[in-house]
Amino acid sequence: MKIETLRWREGRLELIDQRRLPLEFAYVACDDAAQVARAIRDMVVRGAPAIGCAAAYGVALEAQRYAGAARVQFDAALEQSFEVLAASRPTAVNLFWAIERMRQCHAQSRDASVEAAAKALLELAQEIYGDDIEINRAIGRHGAPLIADGARVMTHCNAGALATAGHGTALGVIRSARDAGKHISVIANETRPYLQGARLTAWEMVQENIPVTLVTDNMAGHLMQRGRIDVIVVGADRIAANGDTANKIGTYTLAVLAERHRIPFYVAAPLSTIDLSIADGSAIPIEERGAAEVTGFRGVRWAPEGVSVANPAFDVTPAALITGIVTELGVIGQPDAIKIRALFGR
Ligand code: MRU
Question: I want to staple 317 with a disulfide (CB 3.0 to 4.6 A). Which of 9, 56, 142, 255 is the partner?
Fold first, then answer.
């Protein structure tokens, strides 16, 4: 089954409703930027590259809606769409990267008709989407040699086809290694509190017939200590200029454990996840989500009323704990600011 996380159908953006997986497989349709922003905020679509693609289409939807309007209205609607989309989630930089590209495209089409500008914006959204699939395949090609035949690969959260336009970053490396003929198995951490590992990664791996074992997050140390994990591959939401990496909460714990047990720890991410404007991980904004995700799940509450809750959705893994960052241009071993700048030809 080909997983089309986002698709453009007859002038609408359709998104797999990831809140309902794996119990139900259904699409929701968006007709304007505000609906896309809500879908991002409510986790209908999630995962850094997928959020970026959705935001680009959100701008394109708004442009389409105002393609018959006067230029001032068109411009005002687009400005509004940039703002509403940028306010949807704070950590994944791909969101801001995609909005910035759409903003530049809009600025470049100032002298064109609004119809032509709307067309250019849709074409760019489609390009960002198409490129993302190619980029993930390239990440997979570069990352596959890092996975030995027979490897037991731990991953966290979901950095798969559902988190991108297709193929995935961390799961893309796993898919590409399998496609290269390697027999690998995946250990998927459940990923409390939102269960992206249990619900989404486990589902993707089952769809692909890649052997997958689901564990709760607190089992990771024990499995590493017992020699049952060969390598760890995770995705990223934002990588600072020095290689410090924000990813789903719990990633830092894994990296510390991996160092202790001398297990290679790889981050797989496109260049659009690297934020050169942030010197190190301490400046990466960490999303704080609602208490209900921690006190229960889907309406079932297990924590007492009156308890206070912390729910940081991401944490930062220092570059020193990362064996390598796998990008579409290749693998940066032991990442640092100089190697990362070189990737961008700076
Ligand atoms: O809160 P989420 O589900 O959007 O968090 C997703 C992650 O942390 C992923 O690991 C990351 O975005 C990389 S996706 C290729």
Answer: 255
**Residue with CA at minimum distance from ligand 1 atom 6:** 47
**What pLDDT, on a 0 to 100 scale, did the predictor assign at position 267?**
99
Task: Evaluate whether residue 287 is within a structural domain.
Answer: yes
Q: Quote the ligand 1 centre to 135 CA distance (angstroms).
A: 17
Annotated catalytic residues are 237
Indicate the top mutation candidate among 46, 174, 273 to test ligand 1's pocket, ranked by most ligand atoms within 8 A of CB: 46
Residues 202 and 263 in one domain: yes
Q: What pLDDT does 1 receive?
A: 74
Residues with CB under 6 A from ligand 1: 46-49, 92, 157, 159, 163-164, 169, 196, 235-237, 247-248, 313
Pocket test for ligand 1, best of 158, 194, 322 (most atoms within 8 A of CB): 158
**What pTM was computed for the model?**
0.97
Low-confidence ranges of the chain (pLDDT < 50): none
Q: Which two tokens stand for residue 141?
A: 């090609």
132 and 146 assigned to the same domain: no
Residue 287 and residue 189 in one domain:
yes
Backbone φ/ψ region at 10: left (φ over 0), alpha (ψ -120 to 50), beta = left
What's the sign of the alpha-carbon dihedral 179, 184, 190, 191?
negative
Ligand 1 centroid–CA 90 distance in Å is 12
Q: Dihedrals φ, ψ of 245, to 5°?
A: -125, 120
pLDDT of the residue at 29: 98
95: domain CATH number is 1.20.120.420
pLDDT of residue 101: 98
Judging by DSSP bridges, how do beta strands 6-9 and 12-16 pair with one another? antiparallel
Q: How far apart are CA 295 and CA 309, in angstroms?
A: 8
**Domain interval for residue 59:** 6-137
Q: What is the pLDDT of residue 2?
A: 84
Length of the chain: 346
- Structure confidence at residue 144 (pLDDT): 98
Q: How many domains does the chain fold into?
A: 2
